[in-house]
Amino acid sequence: MEQAALEQAAEWMLRLHDGAGSEADRLACERWRCASPANARAWARVERLQDLFRQVPPAIALPVLGRPANAGRRNAIKHLALLLSAAPGGWLGWQLWQRGDWSADQRTATGERRQLRLPDGSRVELDTATALDLRFDASARGVRLREGRILVEAAADPLSPPRPFRVRTAFGSLQAQATRFEVRALGDRHRVMVLEGAVRLGFDLPTVATRMINAGQLAWFDAHGCSASLDADPAQAAWVGGMLAADRMPLGELLGELARYRSGRLRCDPEVAALAVSGAFPLDDIERSLAMLEAIYPLAVRRGAGGWWITVGPRGA
């Protein structure tokens, strides 16, 4: 594959990374992509590389695809061009495996959801891009959530004396018995939402007191403590059935959630980011969800780079 086209693709990749480019930049990239078969082939490599990045946690992907300072931009472009020339699943895939959640006991890819039945009869629903480890022995049962979101239905332990069911995260441990609850890892803070029963939230720091989160409550927590309990909306767990339930949700937030279920970029124009949106949107058919938004609200869905970039903005803009 022509090295010049790969370097140009790397340049566009850096310019447009994380939606930093303007609409004019995206249109210019689209014109460049269509200008020659070599450009189109190089951009296909970009799409495959970006898809791989999206399937690992941001803490792993972003250092590989950081936005370099101007002084190092030429070197960064050459480095990215080398990555683009490598076959996906080769050296790059191995590096991401070694550094990330690919070694987890269970994981889901972007857009995938799956249910696990555990040895004790408990069930765990894994959301998109989720990774966890299992722990079952004579003294303990539970999972360690590395990344993503899970909904747990903790069964009563068949052994005697009963072992508590625990979900460990980077920031604390949630202990439950015959309980239904959701745990979501979101970067520098996590969230627990209890639908049935109660969950005891403990921390590694001895100076941080444990907290009890009861049915109908949710709370945010990090390594240093827990927020005040808030009222939980059970509709937030609709993802288990493949739906995103919105009740006057800001459009920017809704699109951020939908973006987790597709490869590529789904961007919200800041002009309409605060628009309150309501409805039930299918997570297994993001195109249908976008069509619903476009049909109900004064919005336009614009696509570029063969559908890899999608921007939702005001109609007629």
Could you characterize the architecture of this molecule?
This protein is an alpha+beta fold. It has three domains: 3-99, no CATH class; 106-235, Jelly Rolls (Sandwich), CATH 2.60.120; 242-314, Phage tail protein beta-alpha-beta fold (3-Layer(bab) Sandwich), CATH 3.55.50.30. The protein is 29% helix and 32% strand. Strands 1, 2, 3, 4, 5, 6, 7, 8, 9, 10, 11, 12, 13 and 14 form a 14-stranded mixed beta sheet that branches. A three-stranded mixed beta sheet has the order 16-19-18, with helices on both faces. The chain has a two-stranded antiparallel ribbon with strand order 15-17. A hairpin with a 2-residue loop joins β12 and β13 (225-226). α1 (3-16) packs across α3 (37-54) and α1 crosses α5. The chain is elongated and about 70 Å long. The model is unreliable at 55-73 and 87-100 (pLDDT under 50).
Helix content: 25-40%
Low-confidence segments, given as residue ranges, are 55-73, 87-100
Shape: elongated
User: What are the secondary-structure elements, in order, as H or E?
Assistant: HHHHHHEEEEEEEEEEEEEEEHEEHEE
Distance between the termini: 38 Å
How large, in whole angstroms, is the Cα Rg?
22 Å
For this structure, what is the CATH class of the largest domain? Mainly Beta
The CATH topology of the largest domain, please?
Jelly Rolls
Biggest sheet details: 14 strands, mixed
Instruction: Give the averaged pLDDT, no decimals.
Output: 82
CATH architecture of the largest domain: Sandwich
Number of helices: 8
| Number of DSSP strand runs | 19
The total domain count is: 3
Strand content: 25-35%
